[in-house]
Amino acid sequence: xxxxxxxxxxxxxxxxxxxxxxxxxxxxxxxxxxxxxxxxxxxxxxxxxxxxxxxxxxxxxxxxxxxxxxxxxxxxxxxxxxxxxxxxxxxxxxxxxxxxxxxxxxxxxxxxxxxxxxxxxxxxxxxxxxxxxxxxxxxxxxxxxxxxxxxxxxxxxxxxxxxxxxxxxxxxxxxxxxxxxxxxxxxxxxxxxxxxxxxxxxxxxxxxxxxxxxxxxxxxxxxxxxxxxxxxxxxxxxxxxxxxxxxxxxxxxxxxxxxxxxxxxxxxxxxxxxxxxxxxxxxxxxxxxxxxxxxxxxxxxxxxxxxxxxxxxxxxxxxxxxxxxxxxxxxxxxxxxxxxxxxxxxxxxxxxxxxxxxxxxxxxxxxxxxxxxxxxxxxxxxxxxxxxxxxxxxxxxxxxxxxxxxxxxxxxxxxxxxxxxxxxxxxxxxxxxxxxxxxxxxxxxxxxxxxxxxxxxxxxxxxxxxxxxxxxxxxxxxxxxxxxxxxxxxxxxxxxxxxxxxxxxxxxxxxxxxxxxxxxxxxxxxxxxxxxxxxxxxxxxxxxxxxxxxxxxxxxxxxxxxxxxxxxxxxxxxxxxxxxxxxxxxxxxxxxxxxxxxxxxxxxxxxxxxxxxxxxxxxxxxxxxxxxxxxxxxxxxxxxxxxxxxxxxxxxxxxxxxxxxxxxxxxxxxxxxxxxxxxxxxxxxxxxxxxxxxxxxxxxxxxxxxxxxxxxxxxxxxxxxxxxxxxxxxxxxxx
Length: 735
Fold this sequence. Notes:
The protein is an alpha/beta fold. It has five domains: 195 residues, 3-Layer(aba) Sandwich (Rossmann fold); 193 residues, P-loop containing nucleotide triphosphate hydrolases (Rossmann fold), CATH 3.40.50.300; 100 residues, Orthogonal Bundle (Arc Repressor Mutant, subunit A); 77 residues, DNA polymerase, domain 1, CATH 1.10.150; 99 residues, Arc Repressor Mutant, subunit A. The protein has 35 helices and 17 strands. Strand 15 and strand 16 form a beta hairpin. The longest helix has 22 residues. It is globular, with a radius of gyration of 29 Å. The C terminus is likely disordered.
């Protein structure tokens, strides 16, 4: 790879290292080789063609399906000093003419177009006057009829390729199964093109599926954990969007609706308000999001079931694009499955077959009894065999204990049969629980032998079991009318030839929505300073008429609030700060940091003292395999790595790093201790009190110090300060 590409990565985009596969992809494009790139949302697809665009002497044409997506990328590139333009119907005549002139004059390096625009004769005529080095096709899954968002105009792009015989073709997407990938390559005639498929595993997304019990209460409980943070809630219908948006607004949340029934102007206003952090939450149908590149979305909730697993993956992919932790909650019910099946049944046979395959995969994921990532990643052709991902409800909550549900299944299936296999699960449950509902008596079902034999379980528990019986194939549900019929497997259960094992939750009013522990809180950044920097970013963004993340991402501000850069040189060490942005914004942000640190006697923290000899993050866990983990951790920490970086290297929590370092020191190894003191969140005076307590009580055990401090300091804080105490040679008394 040319050194120029690495220089651009740092000086223009502000990144020190390429992400996995980026360097190889860029190298292929620069050698004018076709590539198919499949990377998860937030994985860095755009850089794969943006950097070659700045190396090539000619023009890179980027095909993008939505105006909002083009606008977002062009704004971000211009902030970086990159000459990028778009040509579409959103521009005034003067803007369109000006951008066209920039292309014709070989000034623009990237041109963003819709697929149908590229095929127009006037556009082909314009491009015939310049050298086109690369044709980048974003959202390439739109090419394939097997994809979840097929667009016929994308299928025509092969016609345009003939006009650029010497240009490399890069097709990029976040969601493509092996079949879709093959279809893309065939459609674009990428003969001999290289396929790069990154891992679909977004480790920073906490994935949860909860039974849809009382969805409004569940939603209120969930979003209450994300005060002043951005999130998206997806609903199935316009009516549901309006209803939920109204209820959340009345409950004091900052919310706007988004659906196709709103006027173009109102949809645009609401989307813009969300992008610019003027509104925290968008309640939307699936019409929202494809053109959104907002990196600081902290949660995505599916109020209703998405139509397929590709849509689900793409929609949760809008969370946590900055690499910080985000939470994805899906509320699951068979009533929603029924709605989707009804709409599938309206399709023609070929479409129906594909839609049913997609739905079955989604149900396998939602009903999974193993780590959520296993069925999700398996769908995209990726093997995932990690024992615990530590970022889903199954792995964090522990796999539910299975119990024998055979007798309950026999009661349920017997009742299905005795009611004539003509009713849905709610009616069956009413009969089993001895309900006095009018419909039960209308059909004389109170006379059945199964009437009232299920009173030992609540209605919600029966609903949970009914879902499992359907999922296990003991019965099947009619797509249109919802009636349940026994299968041969169900008959085996009734005859006593087959046992049924599953989960049964204790009765509770609302299914608990557990919010993942905030890994972001373990980044050791100063929350007060982060808030001040965020306010400055918003003011600068409003003055420039751009979204705040175009100035700097949350991850950049978090690093500023962690390392306290107070010079141009140290600001350039921060993630996402390139030379152009440093020139633009150093005078705005550095004085805030300087004043904040001066008032609190804080000093800069060196971020990268190890730059001269970087450690390969992918191989570090395998290196020196004979060395005990705590020795390895201690050595890496002493080499200049931060605790945060060690957490990422080994995929462990901060408390585990502290335990390893504690063991390292106890065995007689020296340890640099400055950073350890700063990661404690206690006030300076309280830290000194704790260290004095160790002088008096010792630190072999923590309980004496805990009791001496009247329980005012948590054990986690005591562990941090004990490590500092030991690393500081047992404490000299000079703190």
